[in-house]
């Protein structure tokens, strides 16, 4: 038979689109043509496949070879088409049987010795193969990752010869199994933070309602320590959330670390990061930091040091929980439901309001420094908490404060109340649901009206205060929002104005 048809996948954001690999052998001058909108790394597979087939002892057909990757208008990147192309050439030349090729999908990059290397996006490939009711043959180094998808049939292969033996019926491939020895996530403990009772309370409220948080304080007061301990206060990831976060991690340049599956992501990009690094992009769109922090925490330290244009790209995903990347030839959408925690100094020198050190900044310098963060972005931050300098008596005191375990119990109880009441966290309350679940008494309503007039809140700011107040009430196990809950929520908002 001079024609073989196989199946593979093209990664498109978090999805994997079906690709039909058609291999045809014809008479004529020897040639190897690869068509179907293939990128450079795919076109280079011609040389990898040729060398691998010859090294392992197969005959490379001395004919005109045409490989078509259909559909032709779908861009194809990555090197995982090597295995499908090699098997297709062997099947079209009669060196392998073609009867059962339609039952499989192939993903693996070939080394020149026939060794199969790991591929990106193993979770997405496995999920798509399961939905198509096909068996996925994938490189052994990526098989454990792909096996995380339940009800998917994954076969692990370390070498091209193993795949050929399986298709010939002489020796079956091993079925890949998901790792069963996953360790429980380990996070830094909140007990390590000395003092800072107000900041600890703000962190607890932010964790309970999934609210964004800005920490302001002098250098060395524990802002980074507090942010790093937020993932340990959040409830454990559900299985579907863990798989979704892992699928995004597997698309990144570093791939997926199986030991991190089930752990809340914590991403802390440097302030020199570009907008593409933050939200994703490239000629073939890749997930950025906000997507890699999906279902976790995105920590932006030294917030005013980020380029203003970089920070502005956060405005849409903070509201929608996703990012749509459009390029001339490609569009992709990635989830970005992250919890933002930012930190900054009160002034350029960092010591405005410090107990012992004098600030060297002029009022104009302070205003210019804080003006690096735009009003629309600040309007999308739910809470601002001051992290003051720690007194010597507190710093030298022995003993530990309340640990993450006790705080997480309260956070989990508050989130359980939110899920039972409205089915989602308070940070996403909208419209009629907000009017229904954010009821307050007459004194609280009067306090709100006074705050709106004096602080000139936007509608967005008003709604965010109500959501934070609702979370504070949930922590207090209160069905209605009382005046003390509103007062605390307004206090968190005043730092933004």
UniProtKB/TrEMBL annotation:
<protein>
    <submittedName>
        <fullName>YifB family Mg chelatase-like AAA ATPase</fullName>
    </submittedName>
</protein>
<dbReference type="Pfam" id="PF01078">
    <property type="entry name" value="Mg_chelatase"/>
</dbReference>
<dbReference type="InterPro" id="IPR000523">
    <property type="entry name" value="Mg_chelatse_chII-like_cat_dom"/>
</dbReference>
<comment type="similarity">
    <text>Belongs to the Mg-chelatase subunits D/I family. ComM subfamily.</text>
</comment>
<keyword id="KW-0547">Nucleotide-binding</keyword>
<dbReference type="InterPro" id="IPR020568">
    <property type="entry name" value="Ribosomal_Su5_D2-typ_SF"/>
</dbReference>
<dbReference type="InterPro" id="IPR025158">
    <property type="entry name" value="Mg_chelat-rel_C"/>
</dbReference>
<dbReference type="GO" id="GO:0003677">
    <property type="term" value="F:DNA binding"/>
</dbReference>
<dbReference type="InterPro" id="IPR004482">
    <property type="entry name" value="Mg_chelat-rel"/>
</dbReference>
<dbReference type="InterPro" id="IPR014721">
    <property type="entry name" value="Ribsml_uS5_D2-typ_fold_subgr"/>
</dbReference>
<dbReference type="InterPro" id="IPR045006">
    <property type="entry name" value="CHLI-like"/>
</dbReference>
<dbReference type="Pfam" id="PF13335">
    <property type="entry name" value="Mg_chelatase_C"/>
</dbReference>
<dbReference type="GO" id="GO:0005524">
    <property type="term" value="F:ATP binding"/>
</dbReference>
<feature type="domain" description="AAA+ ATPase">
    <location>
        <begin position="209"/>
        <end position="391"/>
    </location>
</feature>
<dbReference type="InterPro" id="IPR001208">
    <property type="entry name" value="MCM_dom"/>
</dbReference>
<dbReference type="InterPro" id="IPR003593">
    <property type="entry name" value="AAA+_ATPase"/>
</dbReference>
<keyword id="KW-0067">ATP-binding</keyword>
<dbReference type="Pfam" id="PF13541">
    <property type="entry name" value="ChlI"/>
</dbReference>
<dbReference type="InterPro" id="IPR027417">
    <property type="entry name" value="P-loop_NTPase"/>
</dbReference>
């Amino acid at each position: 038979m001079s024609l073989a048809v196989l199946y593979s996948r093209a990664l498109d954001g978090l999805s994997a689109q079906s690709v039909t690999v058609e291999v045809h052998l014809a008479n004529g001058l020897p040639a190897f043509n690869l068509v179907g909108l293939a990128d450079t790394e795919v076109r280079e597979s011609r040389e990898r496949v040729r060398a691998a087939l010859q090294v392992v002892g197969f005959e490379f057909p001395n004919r005109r070879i045409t490989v078509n990757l259909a559909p032709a208008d779908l861009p194809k990147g990555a090197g995982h088409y090597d295995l499908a192309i090699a098997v297709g050439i062997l099947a079209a030349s009669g060196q392998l049987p073609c009867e059962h090729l339609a039952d499989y999908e192939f993903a693996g990059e070939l080394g020149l010795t026939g060794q199969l290397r790991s591929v990106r996006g193993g979770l997405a490939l496995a999920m798509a193969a399961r939905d198509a009711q096909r068996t996925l043959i994938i490189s052994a180094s990526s098989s454990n990752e792909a096996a995380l998808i339940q009800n998917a049939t994954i076969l692990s292969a370390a070498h091209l010869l193993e795949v050929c033996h399986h298709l010939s019926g002489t020796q079956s491939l091993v079925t890949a199994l998901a790792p069963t020895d996953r360790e429980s996530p380990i996070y830094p403990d909140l007990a390590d933070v000395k003092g800072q009772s107000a900041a600890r309370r703000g962190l607890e409220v932010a964790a309970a309602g999934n609210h964004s948080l800005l920490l302001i304080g002098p250098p060395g007061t524990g802002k980074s320590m507090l942010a790093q301990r937020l993932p340990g206060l959040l409830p454990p990831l559900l299985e579907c959330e863990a798989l979704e976060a892992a699928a995004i991690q597997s698309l990144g340049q570093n791939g997926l670390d199986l030991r991190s599956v089930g752990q809340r992501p914590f991403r802390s990009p440097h302030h020199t990061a570009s907008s593409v690094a933050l939200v994703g992009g490239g000629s073939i769109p890749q997930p950025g930091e906000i997507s890699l922090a999906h279902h976790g925490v995105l920590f932006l330290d030294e917030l005013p040091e980020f380029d203003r244009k970089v920070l502005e790209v956060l405005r849409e995903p903070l509201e929608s929980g996703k990012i749509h990347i459009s390029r001339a030839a490609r569009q992709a959408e990635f989830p970005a439901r992250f919890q933002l925690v930012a930190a900054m100094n009160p002034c350029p020198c960092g010591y405005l309001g410090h107990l012992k050190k004098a600030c060297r900044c002029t009022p104009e310098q302070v205003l210019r420094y804080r003006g690096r963060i735009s009003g629309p972005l600040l309007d999308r931050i739910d809470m601002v908490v001051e992290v003051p300098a720690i007194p010597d008596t507190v710093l030298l005191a022995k003993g530990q404060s309340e640990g993450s375990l006790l705080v997480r119990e309260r956070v989990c109880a508050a989130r359980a109340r939110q899920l039972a009441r409205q089915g989602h966290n308070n940070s996403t309350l909208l419209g009629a649901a907000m009017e229904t679940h954010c009821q307050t008494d007459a004194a609280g309503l009067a306090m709100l009206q006074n705050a709106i007039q004096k602080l000139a809140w936007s509608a967005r700011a008003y709604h965010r205060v109500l959501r934070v107040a609702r979370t504070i009430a949930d922590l207090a196990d209160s069905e209605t929002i009382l005046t003390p809950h509103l007062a605390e929520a307004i206090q968190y908002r005043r730092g933004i104005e």
